[in-house]
TrEMBL record:
It is an enzyme of class 3 (hydrolase). This is poly(ADP-ribose) glycohydrolase. Residues 90-221 form the PARG helical domain. It comes from Populus alba x Populus x berolinensis. The keyword Cell membrane does not apply. Belongs to the poly(ADP-ribose) glycohydrolase family. GO terms for molecular function: poly(ADP-ribose) glycohydrolase activity. Keywords: Hydrolase. It comes from the Eukaryota. Residues 239-508 form the PARG catalytic Macro domain. GO terms for cellular component: cytoplasm; nucleus. Substrate binds at residues 273, 287, 328. Its EC number is 3.2.1.143.
Length: 569
């Protein structure tokens, strides 16, 4: 193993970590070690038995770091820590926190240097020639990071103690990571949902301090390359969608229930902000933020994953769920412990797969322009495309049978397959990737694994579980977004879509519309072309109808007539 000081992955992270690097090891400054050792002995020794005193201890540790890039915490964070631990939770809960959890967290921080060193050593051998170590996964840099759940817990403890340097994060377009804003917001403008967000995270810390999980979580940046290259899934043009002859996959509508409760092992869609986590560590409390609260290990990705561009998505596998909840937005409420009973895969990741895709923000009328239709279709396609199963599915580029152990060369104008190569004759490139137990090669995400795949459930076909992506604060048209996700999932060779409408009125006829489309055996190209025609008319104010009513006026006229009859006294 090369020395720690020579590791490029570690070098990329050092400006964003609170540790120091010696000639061959990572370490805390001696004064920090003393402070953490004091905390680890419990409140009778440390005298830290309140939120106010905890924040004072945190401030002392921060001062001892002596890092030039460690900026001051949010001005009223101290008030938030005091309010939560001294007033908002019961004395019994507070006693448990200071007597058991805080000492355990201090011990976890003391182990952070050795946890990171072990992580980097293991990262060299997890895959053959594939970098999986913690590093800054920058824009257009496809790759994957594997973190042990204990290391994730230590990193989140750093965030709770507000120890991460933040001055360089803005220039790298990284999300917020320390918890000072989370606590400041509850002090400056108290809300029940903010209190319950913090309760979810504190419950996570209580759980891991009583029983540390031993699995892994992987974070992958997925990229559709902007340039057209052989053996590459590139960012498609409109002509790609228009000419697609891939059949639409089965579509199942759920008027109740939640994406995270699905039990079919599907890829679950995070309605993301381009900055991963969105307002999770501030005052946000919508779909993405709630998911990050009930599965706090997701927050670790905010440390090293800069914001997503239009051709990028982030897939996270293995994040365990720790909390139950009720409500949404202002009514969000922590409702107790959740024991995640999902199985684990060969890499000891919980079989939960989440993909973060950010929809068009402030969509308005521009969402009906072809440019933005294309942007949304490609964003979803990037998130949904799973190369690990390419030889189990139809090619993502054409209808037909299994491609077997072959590679594809794509036409540079249409991105449609024009030549197949047996694997042993495939052109060799510096960025080729061998996937699916070495049976399928396709340059997609820019790294090589010739012995295995980190992708989940190689034997199974994994569907999509999604809902009203980009249709809340971002202002997307639910009928349009539904169809875009459907065609993207179908083009990505997903076997099915499970769509959760959350009961919104505009999608009450979604099941009838989707079944009508399926009964007429539409292809991806058919649906795309219809969306383009409708959107053009909508943008040019030639129609004010929703897509469903425009597509099937007879069905909707009948429904309107029946509604009028039933409402007549």
């Amino acid at each position: 193993m090369e020395g720690m000081e020579n590791r490029e992955d570690l070098k990329s992270m050092l400006p964003f970590l609170p540790l120091l690097l010696g000639s061959s090891n990572l370490f805390w400054p001696s004064q920090v070690v003393k402070s953490l050792e004091t905390l680890s002995k419990g409140p009778l020794y440390s005298k830290v038995d309140s939120g106010e005193l905890l924040f004072n201890a945190i401030s002392h540790i921060r001062d001892s770091l002596a890092l030039p890039s460690l900026q001051p915490v949010a001005p009223f964070a101290h008030g938030g820590y005091a309010l939560f631990f001294d007033e908002l939770i019961s004395r019994a809960e507070a006693s448990k926190w200071f007597e058991e959890v805080v000492p355990a967290l201090a011990n976890l921080l003391l182990r952070l240097p050795s946890l990171l060193e072990s992580h980097y050593q293991d990262a060299d051998y997890l895959f053959n020639g594939v970098g999986t170590g913690l590093r800054l996964l920058g824009s257009q840099e496809a790759g994957i990071v594997f973190l042990g759940q204990e290391l994730v817990a230590a990193l989140l403890t750093c965030a709770f103690f507000c120890l991460f340097p933040v001055s360089d994060r803005g220039s790298k377009r990284l999300p917020t990571i320390n918890f000072d804003n989370l606590f400041e917001d509850i002090y400056e403008s108290y809300s029940k949902k903010q209190e319950n967000k913090i309760k979810c995270i504190m419950h996570y810390f209580e759980r891991i301090c009583s029983s540390m999980p031993e699995g892994f979580v992987s974070f992958e940046r997925k990229v559709l390359l902007l340039e057209q290259l052989p053996l590459c899934v590139s960012y498609p043009e409109a002509d790609f969608w228009s000419k697609s002859v891939v059949s639409l996959c089965p579509f199942e509508v759920h008027s109740s229930g939640f994406i995270e409760d699905q039990s079919n092992g599907a890829l679950e869609v995070d309605f993301a902000n381009k900055y991963l986590g969105g307002g999770a560590l501030r005052s946000g409390c919508l779909q993405e933020e709630i998911r990050f609260m009930i599965s706090p290990e997701l927050i670790a990705g905010m440390l090293f994953l800069p914001c997503m561009e239009d051709n990028e998505a982030i897939e996270i596998v293995g994040a365990e769920r720790f909390s139950n909840y009720t409500g949404y937005a202002s009514s969000f409420c922590f409702s107790g412990d959740h024991v995640d009973k999902r199985n684990v895969d060969g890499f000891r990741r919980c079989k939960t797969r989440i993909v973060a895709i950010d929809a068009l923000c402030r969509a308005g009328m521009r969402q009906y322009k072809c440019t933005y239709l294309l942007r949304e279709a490609n964003k979803a396609f990037c998130g949904f495309l799973d190369q690990s199963n390419c030889d189990h599915h139809k090619s993502p580029f054409q209808d037909g049978g299994s491609q077997g152990s072959q590679c594809m060369e794509t036409d540079k104008d249409t991105n449609v397959v024009v030549k197949d190569f047996p694997m042993d004759e495939a052109p060799s490139t510096s960025v080729e990737i061998a996937m699916n137990r070495g049976e399928y090669i396709n340059q997609v995400i820019g790294y090589s694994d010739k012995k295995g795949s980190w992708c989940l459930d190689l034997e199974d076909k994994i569907g999509i579980a999604t809902g009203n992506w980009g249709c809340g604060a971002f202002g997307g048209d639910p009928e349009l977004k539904t169809m875009i996700q459907w065609l993207a999932a179908s083009q990505a060779a997903r076997p099915s879509v499970s769509y959760y409408t959350f009961g919104i009125k505009s999608l009450q006829n979604l099941n009838q519309v989707s079944q009508w489309i399926l009964s007429h055996e539409w292809t991806v190209g058919d649906l795309w072309n219809m969306l383009v025609e409708y959107s053009s008319r909508r943008f040019n104010k030639e129609t004010n109808l929703g897509f469903f009513a425009w597509l099937l006026p007879t069905l909707f006229a009948h429904d309107a007539k029946m509604s009028n009859l039933t409402s007549t006294p």
